[in-house]
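Hi F.,

I've been meaning to write this up properly since the lab meeting, where we talked about keeping a consistent format for the predictions we share between groups. The idea is simple: the sequence comes first, exactly as it goes in, then the structure tokens exactly as they come out, then a line or two of notes. No screenshots and no reformatting. I'm using this chain as the first example so we have something concrete to point to.
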Amino acid sequence: MKLPWVALAVGLMTAPSFAEEKTALVVIREAGAETCPDAVQVAAHVNAIVAREVIGPGPGEDSAWIEVTMHRAGEGYGATVRTYGRSVGQRQLSDAGPGCTALGEAVAVSLALMWTSQEEAPAPEDPPPATEEGTSSDPVAPPEPAQPAATPKHPPARRAPRRAPTDPWLRLGVDALVGVAASVLEHPAPGGELGVRADLGTSASFGIVAGGVGPDRIDSHGGSVTLSLLFAALRACVGVIDRSPRVWFCLRPTVGRLAGAGTGFDESWEHEHVQPALGVGVELRGRVTHALGWAAELVATAPLERQGFSVVDAEGEHTVFSSPNLGVWALVGVSWELY
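Output, unedited:
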């Protein structure tokens, strides 16, 4: 354990007078600090240091409670420790290491000091022994009768306890990704998508995605056909890994507009088809700053109805393009947290 942490903890806050019952502890891990210890781990470390149960995960409505907020700080991590109730204060801790374990230990030690400092305080001096009866020449005055304490007219109003905050359960974001699609059109073609989403904690995510693929060109029978695909999709995901980067498994039903334009044939033509498809994929998201992050997707799509284009010449009708049975998308981009 680094000594500057202990000095900083003692210097920025004096030890509060917590009651012997368990004090509520809330640990908030901001985006990018998901690998830091949670409230259960920090409380267990503190209780092990002081050798008794003095703190436990919250939130609670006690007259005194503690909030720890952990966040990314440059290449390392930082923590803000606040106490509320009978003793109010705040301190800052930081660690430049690549992991958050050392910072978690520093937070536990600084919290444990709140109780160990009370135990090490000097005990009050014993009162001087009473004079033995009959050895003092001074007369002993009879004690004065105790005066009854004045009863207040109105009892003091009890202030409602402050409820500890909890992690936000709803986050809104925007994703913009670009990449390549293979076996969606005839040849691998560039693609991109833009989506909005709502994350319910780290367990579920829902959103709407719009994008496109192409153009792709096919040369056939003396002419050429240009293909493109525009689509809109619903996105429903479940969280698989709850740490940075977070991993989601997603289901994506899609409706697309498959367009083809033929030139160089006896007659030029343009046709469109509705292309429904079902996709499944894996998505990764990580943080760069508090609001800005990165995202990557790998999606497999299968058309629910195969569409295609044909040309007619002197030799008869020829199929130029037919939707493949399975396509693959690989996309990377940026992610922005709106709320």
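Notes:
The chain has two domains: 3-119, 170-337.
The first helix runs from residue 3 to 12.

If this format works for you, I'll send the rest the same way.

G.
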